Amino acid sequence: MTVTPSSPTITLERVVLSPDADLAVIESELLPWAQLQRRAFYPSQIHQRIFGKVKHEDMDNRFLERMKELLLEQKGAQVRFVKAMRGQELLGFAMWSVRGVVLDHGEGESGLRTMGKNEDKPIMPFKRKVAPYPPGTNVELAKQMFEGEPAPKEGPHWYLNILVTDPQFQRSGAGTALLAWGTRQADHARVRTYLKATVEGMSVYKRGGFTPYGEPDKAGNDGELVLQPMVRQPLA
Question: What is the spatial distance between Cα 182 and Cα 98, in angstroms, rounded to a whole number?
Answer without folding.
Answer: 10
